[in-house]
Design goal:
Layout: E1 3-8, H1 12-21, E2 27-32, H2 35-45, E3 49-53, H3 61-70, E4 79-83, H4 88-96, E5 101-104, H5 109-117, E6 139-144, H6 148-157, E7 163-168, H7 171-180, E8 185-189, H8 196-206, E9 215-220, H9 224-233, E10 237-241, H10 245-255, E11 265-268, E12 271-275, H11 282-301, E13 306-310, H12 319-334, E14 338-342, H13 345-352, E15 362-363, H14 366-375
Parallel strand pairs: 1-2, 1-3, 3-4, 4-5, 6-7, 6-8, 8-9, 9-10, 12-13, 13-14, 14-15
Antiparallel strand pairs: 11-12
């Protein structure tokens, strides 16, 4: 849930600094230049946190705080005071008025965020434009592993993506990197010495910048006790060695809440092209399946009724893929959409020999499939053409 934060300060520069500090988090910022404006905005916006300066014209922060605590509608809103005076007596005076915390100017953004995160949960935003990030957007991945070969393997396996994989060998290096860069996902080897992996996990979860990012544990498949320990403390996912890199990539995309539909769906003129990848595992089929109905609906809403299922990358077809395609073709028929299949010669020959697929009609290239669909566009509910 997006939190509302009200900043009350007569300095426009300070308000800009505060807005910038909270920009990486899913917050809505409201501003006021004095206590009178601050109370009016608090009534209107009902913020989850008020950052209140002490020294302001018209109405200072102490008077505004006093009035807030006397108002039944506002008194429960937590307040953090911003003060240029760090003397003990002044701090005690503020505390007696009922503030949740305070920070002395000038302050570091990290300190401000750390204190605010103790009061409200600061969730990172996925994209500054408000849209969901996709697999075509850059991301920073941190791999903490003392075996360079494993880091290299992950870097090589993900080099086709726009993700930057940063490899470090120790907990200290990981903490130092996280102070400079808030990674989008962290993979930690659970075999680091002296349970450093679990110590690092705890540090990540207590840092507001990394509190909510996905953290994967990397471990040998047979080390079940370590896997259980990692699951109990809250690791997002356990990845076992040897690493299945395509599966890891899919799981990373899901954990980072990335829109992966661009991998499988694209619109070309009036055609929706649905691509089935070579690595057609059960998890990949499930991923495509979650997007299929919305994409078909989007196509219909746009006035398109032509769908191409591109199976060309497949070298063989299994029962799960057959079941998925049967359901997909039925979904097209239910929506009155024309569809066609394209595949390579090896796949076409295999399908001709299977009972479930022997009557599927394939085209060898996209151009032929489009030509067929253009001719069949007038047919409201096309059926598979027998070979």
């Amino acid at each position: 849930m997006r939190h509302k934060i009200l900043t009350v300060d007569d300095s426009k520069t300070v308000r800009m600094i505060l807005r910038k500090a909270f920009r990486p988090f899913d917050c809505e910022i409201f501003e006021a230049a004095n206590g009178v404006e601050g109370i009016a905005m608090a009534v209107k916006a009902a913020p989850d946190l008020i950052l209140l300066d002490i020294t302001m014209p018209v109405m200072d922060g102490v008077e505004m705080l006093t009035r807030i605590k006397a108002d039944p509608q506002l008194k429960a809103i937590p307040v953090m005071m911003l003060t240029a005076e760090g003397g003990r007596e002044h701090v005690l005076r503020i505390a007696k008025l009922g503030v949740r915390d305070y920070i002395v100017k000038p302050f570091k953004e990290d300190t401000l965020i750390e204190k605010a995160a103790r009061i409200i949960d600061l969730m990172p935003v996925t994209d500054g434009s408000g849209r969901q990030r996709s697999t075509e957007d850059p991301a920073d991945i941190l791999v903490v592993e003392d075996k360079p070969a494993i880091i290299h393997q992950i870097q090589e396996g993900l080099k086709h993506t726009p993700w930057m994989v940063h490899g470090v060998a120790s907990q200290a290096e990981a903490v130092e990197l996280c102070t400079r860069l808030a990674p989008d996902l962290v993979i930690i080897s659970l075999s680091l010495p002296e349970e450093a992996a679990f110590a690092l996990f705890r540090k990540l979860r207590t840092n507001p910048k990394t509190k909510f990012i996905p953290v994967f544990g990397l471990v040998v498949k047979t080390e079940t006790s370590v896997q259980n320990q990692a699951q109990q403390v809250g690791f997002t996912l356990i990845v076992t060695k040897p690493i299945d890199l395509p599966d890891l990539e899919a799981r990373m995309a899901k954990a980072m809440n990335l829109d992966t539909s661009l991998r499988y769906f694209k619109f070309e003129a009036e055609f929706l092209i649905t691509s089935i990848p070579e690595n057609c595992s059960t998890s990949v089929l499930a991923e495509i399946g979650q997007y299929l109905q919305p994409k078909l609906t989007e196509a219909v809403d746009s006035g398109h009724n032509k769908v191409v299922f591109d199976l060309h990358p497949l070298r063989s077809i299994n029962l799960s893929t057959i079941k998925f395609l049967v359901q997909a073709m039925q979904a097209c028929r239910d929506l009155g959409m024309n569809y066609a299949l394209i595949g390579n010669l090896q796949l076409i020959a295999e399908c001709k020999g299977l009972e479930e697929t022997r009557y599927w009609n394939f085209y060898e290239n996209l151009a032929d499939a489009k030509t067929h669909l253009a001719k069949a566009a007038a047919v409201p509910t096309p059926q598979p053409v027998e070979a």
